[in-house]
Amino acid sequence: MTALAIPYDEEPVQEDPPGFDHARIEKAVREILFAIGEDPERDGLRDTPARVARAYAEQFAGLRQRPEDALTTVFDADHEEMVLVKDIEVYSVCEHHLVPFHGVAHVGYTPNKKGQITGLSKLARLVDVYARRPQVQERLTSQVADALMSVLEPRGAIVVIEAEHLCMTMRGVRKPGAKTVTSAVRGDFRDHAETRGEAMSLILGRS
Ligand SMILES: Nc1nc2c(ncn2[C@@H]2O[C@H](COP(=O)(O)OP(=O)(O)OP(=O)(O)O)[C@@H](O)[C@H]2O)c(=O)[nH]1
Ligand SMILES: [Zn+2]
């Protein structure tokens, strides 16, 4: 064994990404457990602060990503008609209560005159960049539409999100099943009722 080898039972130390403080989250979660009257040292809870920190690193990864990180593949295609990806599953976290809201996003655009399109999976990746942050649904919807417009420069973009907020179902007003629908339309989806209508019928058609 060389002096540089890592013993097999020792994990390499993972560095925090910039702007993310794992140790501070652990400390805060421990504090919350105390504050609700729990014992953070009991068996089931001992590792919870570290687990929560790891989960937050994933749930809030979008804070350290830019839309360009998602829309990496842009290519030319002889296609100037609408492209729409429906029913993209979306999980985000309500910034008021820090509990999840989840549902589906529908993302569409009309390519620019050069026929520049992006990979279909990149639209779902773009939704995640903004969903993996503390959010309100309206801002999430607009941010996805605005990012599409600025990075892909299409003739127009449409984003519709339908979601259920756990802060409205498991607590508070307690209305399970209530769905919030938000939309953001840009460019020709905003300017042309016919284009917007076509997209909405494709989205609502559930085909
Ligand atoms: N517009 C919008 N409101 C949201 C979203 N997520 C949660 N909310 C609302 O944020 C509001 C926060 O209201 P407050 O009165 O400050 O908080 P609260 O006392 O916990 O409110 P209740 O949920 O009614 O018990 C609630 O009405 C939530 O339903 C969202 O994505 N968009
Ligand atoms: Zn909430």
Write up what this structure looks like.
With about 210 residues, the chain is of the alpha+beta class. It has 2 domains: about 20-60, no CATH class; about 70-205, 2-Layer Sandwich (GTP Cyclohydrolase I, domain 2), CATH 3.30.1130.10. Helices cover about 40% and strands about 25% of the residues. The strands form 2 sheets. The chain has a 5-stranded mixed sheet with strand order 5-2-3-6-7. The protein has a two-stranded antiparallel sheet with strand order 1-4. A hairpin with a 5-residue loop joins strand 2 and strand 3. The mean pLDDT is about 95. Zinc ion (ZN) binds near residues 97, 99, 165 and 167. Guanosine-5'-triphosphate binds near residues 96, 167, 168 and 173.
Key terms for this structure?
elongated; metal-binding; single chain; binds guanosine-5'-triphosphate; alpha+beta; GTP Cyclohydrolase I, domain 2; 207 residues
What form results from the Cα inertia axes? elongated
| Small molecules bound | guanosine-5'-triphosphate, zinc ion
Q: Number of DSSP helices? A: 8
Structural class: alpha+beta
Largest sheet: 5 strands, mixed
Computed CA radius of gyration, to the nearest angstrom:
21 Å
Give the end-to-end Cα distance, rounded to a whole number of Å.
61 Å
Low-confidence runs? none
* CATH topology group of the largest domain: GTP Cyclohydrolase I, domain 2
Mean pLDDT: 93
How many DSSP E strands?
7
CATH superfamily of the largest domain: GTP cyclohydrolase I, C-terminal domain/NADPH-dependent 7-cyano-7-deazaguanine reductase, N-terminal domain
Percent helix, as a range, is: 25-40%
At CATH level 2, the architecture of the largest domain is: 2-Layer Sandwich
The total domain count is 2
Q: Spell out the helices and strands N to C.
A: HHHEEEEHEHEHEHH
Strand content: 15-25%
